[in-house]
Write a structure and sequence with these properties.
This protein has 136 residues and is mainly α. It has two domains: 17-58; 67-130, DNA Binding (I), subunit A (Orthogonal Bundle), CATH 1.10.30. The chain contains four helices and two strands. It has helices at 36-58, 67-82, 90-101, 104-135, and strands at residues 17-19, 26-28. Strands 1-2 form a two-stranded antiparallel sheet. A hairpin with a 6-residue loop joins strand 1 and strand 2 (26-28). Helix 2 crosses helix 4. It starts with 16 loop residues before the first strand and ends with a helix. Mean pLDDT is 76; it is low at 1-9. This is High mobility group B protein 7. Keywords: DNA-binding, Nucleus. One of its GO terms (biological process) is polar nucleus fusion.
């Protein structure tokens, strides 16, 4: 009689147990995927994979900030010191309005700073490219 749960079907029987290699506990074969060691291994694997991805993206050099971002960094610091109880959502809007009201002379300080950072960035890219060429 070909009944359910009997015979040589591919599904494991509910009374079959295996010993977990991670913790040496008896675990039902049907529940091995839900066993804490299996989930822990998956979490560890996921964290390791994400760390590898982070280190690969960290090796790429980020472009330096623009003049506006340099200004906003300064503005954010000074504005929050002067107005500690202000809503943080308002700071970018106020900073943008102040940037728009600046004259070219007032913006020149930030443009010069951004240009200097960009020169340093380009020089570091050129040196890293020449280092890569030397390796081959």
């Amino acid at each position: 009689m070909a009944g359910r749960g009997h015979g040589g079907g591919g599904s494991p029987k509910s009374n079959e147990f295996v010993i977990c290699e991670g913790c040496n506990k008896n675990v039902a074969v049907a529940f091995i995927s839900m066993h804490s060691c299996s989930r822990l291994d998956a979490k560890i694997r996921f964290k390791l994979e994400s760390k590898v991805a982070e280190t690969q993206t960290e090796s790429k050099k980020k472009k330096p900030p623009t003049a506006f971002y340099i200004f906003m960094s300064d503005f954010r610091k000074t504005y929050q010191k002067e107005n500690p109880y202000v809503n943080l959502k308002d700071v970018p809007k106020l900073g943008g309005e102040k940037w728009k009201s600046f004259t070219s002379d007032e913006k020149q300080v930030y443009w010069d700073s951004a240009a200097q950072l960009m020169r340093g960035y380009n020089m570091s890219l050129e040196s890293s490219e020449s280092d890569e060429e030397d390796e081959y």
